[in-house]
Structure to design on (377 residues):
C-alpha cells in the first residue's frame, strides 16, 4: 500500500461540514505523500497557506448571454476532465453527491474508465436534495456510477439505501478531527471577556439554517439560565440569525447572548464553552459535536440522524427527542450542576474523540478505499 496517488478533490469550498472534511482530508493525504488537487469554484476556506503536495484549480463558469443560468455543473465536469488528463489523476474524490458525483461521472465519460470515482455523502445531499423529484434520479445515477461510495454515519447509509433504493455497498467513513488542532485550549484569559467566574458558557455553532432549530437553542438557554447563571455564544452566520435576535429580545435574555459571527479558530472558541447545544431536526453526523467533544465540551442535543453515533447518551453528553427542549434544558442543568458527572463526561468525550474519530484512523480508511478501487490492495 505504498504507491502514492494523484487525487482530485471536489467539494463546496465555503463554510460547511462537508467542505471542512474534504479540505482537512486533502491536507492529511498530502502530508502522507499523495498529490492532491482541489478542483472547486473557490479556494476552500480551510486551505489557507501553502501546503506541500496540494494544488488548487479554480472552475471558471462561462456566462455567455444566451444562458439564463450559468452552467456551473458542466463547467465543473469539463474542468475535472481537463485536470485528470493534465495531471494524470488516479482518483476523483467528490464530497456531497449533488452535483459533484454527476459531474465526476461526466468527466469519466470524457477521459475513460481508468479514472476511478469515490463519492462521499454528507447529509443534506440525501436527506433533503434526494427527496426532491427534480434531482432524485440524477443523484441516484451519480451514486450508482461511482466506484466507491462512502457516508459519514450508519444512519446516512441506511437513509440513502431507503430513499434512493441503492443496492451497492456504501462504506462508513466517520468524520474526524485533527488532534493537533482540536484539544482543550487554555483560554482562561479570554473567558473573562464573556462570562463572570460564577457563570457557565453555552455555545451553538452552525450555519443557522432551519434544520438546526436555533429557536430551540434559545428555549433551552432560557430555561437553563433561570437555574444556572450563564451566557450563550452563537458562532456562525445564516438565514435564521435575525429570528434569534428578535426572540432573544422578547425573552429578555439578549444581554446574556453574544453573537460572534464566523470564526476561523473554532477550537479556541469551543474551549471557552461548558456545553454545546445541538438540537437539530436533521444531522447526518454533527461535526460540531465531535469538534466540541475533542475540545472537552459535552453536547446536549437531539437524537436526530447520526448524532447518537457521535454523542453517546449519558457518557459523552445527553440527547433527547427533536423539539424536547424541556428535557434538553434539564440535562444541561444536571451536568452543569454536578462537577463529578461533568468531569466524567469530558474525560469520556476526549477518549472517544481520540479513539474513534482521529485524523490518522479516518485518513487510513479513505486510503484503503482508494487502493481497493484501483486494485492496488
Ligand atoms: O449542516 C449543514 O447544513 C452543512 C452540511 C454540509 O454539507 O456541509 O453538513 C452536513 O455534513 C457534515 C459533514 O459531514 C455533517 O457533520 C452534518 O451533520 C451534515 N448536515 C446535515 O446533515 C444537516
Amino acid at each position: 500500500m505504498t504507491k502514492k496517488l494523484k487525487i482530485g478533490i471536489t467539494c463546496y469550498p465555503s463554510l460547511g461540514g462537508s467542505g471542512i472534511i474534504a479540505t482537512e482530508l486533502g491536507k492529511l493525504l498530502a502530508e502522507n505523500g499523495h498529490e492532491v488537487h482541489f478542483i472547486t469554484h473557490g479556494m476552500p476556506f480551510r486551505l489557507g497557506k501553502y501546503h506541500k503536495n496540494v494544488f488548487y484549480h479554480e472552475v471558471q463558469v462561462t456566462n455567455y448571454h444566451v444562458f439564463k443560468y450559468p452552467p456551473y455543473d458542466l463547467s465543473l465536469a469539463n474542468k475535472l476532465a481537463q485536470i485528470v488528463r493534465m495531471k494524470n489523476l488516479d482518483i476523483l474524490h467528490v464530497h456531497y453527491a449533488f452535483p459533484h458525483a454527476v459531474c465526476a461521472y461526466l468527466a469519466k465519460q470524457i477521459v475513460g474508465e481508468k479514472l476511478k470515482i469515490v463519492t462521499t455523502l454528507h447529509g443534506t445531499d440525501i436527506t433533503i436534495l434526494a427527496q426532491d423529484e427534480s434531482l432524485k434520479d440524477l443523484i441516484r445515477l451519480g451514486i450508482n456510477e461511482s466506484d466507491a461510495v462512502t457516508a459519514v454515519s450508519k444512519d446516512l447509509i441506511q437513509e440513502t439505501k431507503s430513499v434512493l433504493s441503492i443496492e451497492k455497498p456504501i462504506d462508513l467513513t466517520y468524520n474526524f478531527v485533527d488532534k493537533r488542532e482540536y484539544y482543550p485550549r487554555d483560554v482562561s484569559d479570554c473567558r473573562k471577556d464573556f462570562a463572570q467566574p460564577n457563570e457557565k458558557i453555552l455555545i451553538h455553532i452552525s450555519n443557522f439554517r432551519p434544520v438546526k432549530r436555533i429557536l430551540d437553542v434559545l428555549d433551552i438557554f432560557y430555561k437553563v439560565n433561570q437555574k444556572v447563571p450563564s451566557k450563550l455564544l452563537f458562532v456562525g452566520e445564516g438565514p435564521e440569525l435575525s429570528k434569534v435576535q428578535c426572540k432573544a429580545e422578547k425573552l429578555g435574555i439578549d444581554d446574556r447572548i453574544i453573537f460572534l459571527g464566523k470564526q476561523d479558530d473554532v477550537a479556541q472558541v469551543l474551549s471557552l464553552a461548558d456545553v454545546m447545544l445541538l438540537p437539530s431536526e436533521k444531522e447526518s453526523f454533527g461535526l460540531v459535536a465531535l469538534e466540541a467533544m475533542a475540545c472537552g465540551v459535552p453536547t446536549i442535543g437531539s437524537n436526530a440522524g447520526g448524532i447518537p453515533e457521535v454523542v453517546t447518551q449519558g457518557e459523552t453528553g445527553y440527547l433527547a427527542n427533536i423539539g424536547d427542549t424541556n428535557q434538553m434544558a434539564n440535562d444541561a442543568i444536571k451536568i452543569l450542576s454536578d462537577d463529578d458527572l461533568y468531569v466524567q463526561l469530558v474525560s469520556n468525550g476526549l477518549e472517544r474523540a481520540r479513539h474513534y474519530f482521529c485524523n490518522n484512523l479516518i485518513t487510513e480508511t479513505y486510503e484503503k478505499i482508494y487502493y481497493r478501487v484501483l486494485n492496488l490492495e
Observations:
- Residues 16-18, 21, 96, 122-124, 127, 152, 175, 207, 209, 211, 282-287 surround GMT (CB under 6 Å).
- The domain at 188-356 is CATH 3.40.50.2000 (Rossmann fold).
- The chain has two domains: 6-176+358-373, 188-356.
- The first helix runs from residue 17 to 31.
